[in-house]
Amino acid sequence: MMIDKIEIKKIMNALMVEHWGILTIDADQLPKLIEREQHIREILLERGTKEFEQDLDKRFLFSSGKKIGTIIAIGIPYDPIGSALPNVSGRVDNFAWEHDYHEILRNLLNAINIETTKFLSNPVIAPEVCVDTADYIDREIGLYTGLGKIGKNHFLIHPEMGTHFFIGYLIYDRILEIDPAEINRFDFENTLLAECEDCNRCSSACPTKICGGPIMDSNKCIAMLTQTKRVLNDQEREWIGNSLYGCNICQKVCPMNKSLSAHPNLATKTDNQIDLYELLDMNNKTFKKKYGKMGFSWRSLWVYKRNALIILGNHGNRSDLEVLNKKTELMMNPKLKATFLWAVGRLESRET
Question: For the chain, what are the domain ranges?
Answer without folding.
Answer: 5-196, 229-246+274-351
